[in-house]
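Tutorial, part two.
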Amino acid sequence: MTPGYGDPIRWWRRFSPERIALVDRKSGRRLSYLDLDVLSDMWLSVLRDKLGVGLGERVAVLMGNRVESVAIFFACIRLRAVFVPLNWRLSPPELASIVDDASPSVIVGERRYNFFNAEDAEDAENAEPKIRWVDVDYDAPRLLQKSDLVGKSQDIIVDGEDPAMIIYTSGSTGQPKGAVLPHRQLLFNAIATTTAWELGSDDIAPITTPFFHVGGWNVFATPLWLRGGCVVLVDQYDPATFLGTLAEEKCTVGFCVPTQLTMLMESPQFGMEVPSLRWLISGGAPCPLPIVERVREAGYSLRLGYGLTECGPNCFAMSAEESLVAHGSVGRPVPFLEMRIVDESLQDVTEGETGELLLRGPQVFSGYLNAAEKTAQVMLDDGWLRTGDLVRRDESGAYWISGRRKEMFISGGENVFPGEVEAALSDCPGVADVVVVGVADPLWGEVGRAFVVPRRDCSLTEEQVIAHARSRLGRYKVPKSVVMMSDIPRLGSGKPDRRALTQMQLTEMQ
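Running the prediction step on this input gives:
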């Protein structure tokens, strides 16, 4: 039997029951490992005995970052059911499509996110297989009874290959795919993360990224619970209060996607001291070097991370010392992961060249739900996962992310990586945010177009942006046009929605 993530909450409940496992900033609740263990058992009783959820069935949740979501996750582990967090930012048709694909037995959610109307809800109740909606605020209180726990709590051993959760991708290349994450992946990611990032039972981390992404669950939450640490739930990221929250909760580490860092730099709190904070880590998308430098100049230690739903998601690490000198690098592979950099023929590139990153190890997912063909497109026969991300490795063994292969465009026969152009433009005075995509051009084949969000109370022109790019980049990399925007469309993960920007261009051409 392959080892799996198992049940660290129960272990720590026995070893150190009063230790705080979970803080909910919105409600003010502070749950010890004993409290969380009991609540998880209560939800186990509800799912199994009152809702009829059985071994291997799927339980979906549609709610913000709440205590109940965590308890249901561990209840699913104990039931050997599969946890499916749903993206509450999606439209009702998009949610309906995912639910149809996942086929959960139960959806536990908040009323504000209920995508069934009255007629749809009745249809769902009568559908086969039946999907039952449980309102976490109105139905759950009458279902949760401590008296139901008598004689029903027991230890379980999970098989590492059993699915633990199904996370749906952002859909940046089309219909979202359900990535099946086995218990094995959660366990080895947690071990590798706590080892490479030097995390222990004294660490406290906020979770501001949504629980419908691996960034919410597996960057800090599941690794810290394995070590007996503390997780602080924040329902939604607020740059105006983020640093204050870190200080009040004595957080030692924190995770931000680059968009959150950009917003944070505009906050009045930016620069305030957080004595307990050892470092921040940025991931989810490439972080432009000017942002990295501004965060560090403000007095915060910042490391760059890389991962994806299908592997990790924590694939690299660097020491505090290296983060100060290897500007822009994501560091070195975490334990257990093998890495290759290959060309389009899947042949290894020479040292220093850019190519596609392949990953292999126990942190790799099981495949996409109901999508064997799509799984085969990314999983090679010998266990290597094609990430679609372009990277290079320097002579010291450190890795540098160049961008997505599908985002790269060719201008006049030269490869242009949007991430490199975006990094150069992020340093332009007056630029708050920027995304670069390739557009068709009759002479060069493709050229860059920059979508720019100016900083507040700042005058910025297309000519200024292009002049700055010319001072930093080779001519073929300089965008040929600039579009000023009030905001960049983004996916639920926080990444730029490049498909939406491309569609905007196509619409303008029609």
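Residues 409-509 form a domain with the GMP Synthetase; Chain A, domain 3 fold (CATH 3.30.300.30). In part three we will examine how such features are distributed along the chain.
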